[in-house]
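Task: sequence design from structure.
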């Protein structure tokens, strides 16, 4: 795979001021020589400087003029020779340029192949490669910050630190296997157990960040629910800043769930507007209500909207299990008509007058920070793949610890520790993880 020279359009397809076409591989410069023309051979151009060149089509005619940049490997993104051409951002001219490069000997890049080559050539570890896609997909300032930290190697450094703690333990156990006459003394055994306890503690702290990672990457699933005509769709429109849902005095207007993404204090929220909860004989509305109940059950945050101007006895409340109460925010809408004194503590809001919105935003941040274990200054937020690896590490180190304390044959202790180290290697990609690579890089866009 690394013997091929690849090419791709690295900017979004469509009309724009400029487009970028990228070439990488051992024959990148030779391919470029067949397509680009300037006053002297391209091999004589200085790296990392921009030159005005003409681009030729596959038949030798002038296609475009733009800036040519050469990045010599290994000091490039992929670790190979990389060529970039910054030309006019027309759809046809950019596509024709790519066809010219392919005719000159390059092949079309697979999704994520540039970043995959950077990983395979040692320019970044696997967690940093994943961070590239997190950076592109970031939907909030906190997600952007977490992606930058991961791109800087935060998770890889933690994995390396855990490895440094486990390696001496494994070395000591294997030394005992080779020299059984040197018994493991109680003091030495206690030291080894203490090291494993430290690894377990640090690994569990990393696992605890998985919920933070899920919310930052995909958004906190936030369900707006309540009775018909209490202002659920009005609240959705108010938070979005535009009219996304139909607002009508007719009960049952919202039949299906409506989803949109917003950012509140740097936290991405996946807002879900739902059908009003009430007894209904309408089949379609009843299906919508059933969907509402399912959405509430799997929500990270529940925004229950009620008509605050009416007494609580006149309202049908959303029934939640005790463990979900911490995820509920009671919104007393229609506060412009006054809030009935019998309501428990909630956020007084008026969708009509746009009052109480900042108080609601603050309440949302407080709840999500608590139930989502979000920490604005935390440098790490692992993803589902990392979590699986770290959970496996906990089980393997626990097994090694128990075997050591029980006096089990040291070969079994060493086996568990080796498996834990292999799982650590999977996190950063230092072991054979071809199947994992296929999954990770297939989600990238072509040209990255």
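Answer:
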């Amino acid at each position: 795979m690394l013997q091929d020279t690849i090419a791709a359009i690295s900017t979004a397809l469509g009309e724009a001021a400029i487009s970028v076409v990228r070439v990488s591989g051992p024959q990148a410069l030779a391919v470029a020589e067949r397509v680009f023309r300037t006053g002297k051979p391209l091999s004589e151009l200085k790296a990392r400087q921009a030159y005005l060149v003409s681009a030729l089509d596959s038949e030798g005619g002038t296609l475009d003029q733009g800036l040519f940049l050469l990045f010599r490997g290994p000091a490039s993104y992929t670790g190979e020779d990389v060529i970039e051409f910054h030309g006019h951002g027309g759809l046809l001219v950019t596509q024709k340029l790519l066809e010219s490069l392919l005719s000159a000997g390059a092949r079309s890049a697979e999704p994520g192949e540039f970043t995959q080559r950077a990983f395979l050539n040692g320019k970044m570890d696997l967690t940093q490669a994943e961070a590239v896609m997190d950076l592109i997909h970031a939907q909030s300032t906190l997600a952007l910050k977490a992606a930058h930290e991961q791109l800087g190697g935060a998770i890889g450094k933690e994995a390396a630190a855990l490895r440094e703690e486990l390696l001496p333990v494994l070395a000591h156990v294997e030394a005992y296997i080779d020299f059984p006459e040197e018994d493991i003394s109680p003091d030495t055994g206690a030291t080894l157990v203490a090291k494993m306890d430290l690894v377990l503690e640090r690994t569990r702290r990393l696992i605890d960040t998985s919920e933070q990672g899920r919310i930052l990457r995909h958004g906190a699933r936030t369900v707006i629910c309540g009775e018909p005509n209490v202002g659920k769709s009005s609240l959705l429109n108010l938070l979005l800043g535009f009219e996304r849902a139909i607002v009508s005095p007719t009960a049952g207007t919202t039949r299906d769930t409506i989803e949109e993404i917003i950012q509140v204090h740097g936290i991405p929220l996946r807002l879900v507007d739902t059908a009003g909860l009430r007894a209904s004989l309408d089949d379609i509305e009843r299906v919508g209500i059933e969907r509402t109940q399912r959405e509430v059950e799997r929500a990270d945050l529940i925004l229950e909207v009620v008509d605050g101007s009416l007494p609580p006895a006149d309202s049908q409340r959303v029934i939640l299990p005790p463990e979900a109460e911490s995820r509920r925010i009671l919104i007393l809408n229609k506060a412009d008509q006054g809030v009935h004194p019998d309501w428990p503590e909630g956020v007084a809001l008026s969708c009509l007058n746009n009052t109480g919105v900042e108080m609601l935003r603050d309440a949302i941040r407080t709840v999500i920070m608590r139930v989502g274990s979000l920490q604005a200054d935390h440098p790490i937020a692992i993803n589902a793949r990392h979590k699986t690896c770290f959970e496996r590490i906990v089980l393997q180190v626990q097994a090694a610890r128990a075997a050591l304390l029980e006096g089990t044959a040291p070969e079994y202790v060493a086996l568990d520790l080796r498996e834990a180290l292999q799982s650590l290697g999977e996190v950063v990609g230092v072991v054979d993880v071809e199947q994992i690579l296929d999954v990770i890089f297939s989600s990238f866009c072509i040209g990255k």
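Residues 154-178 form the longest helix (25 residues).
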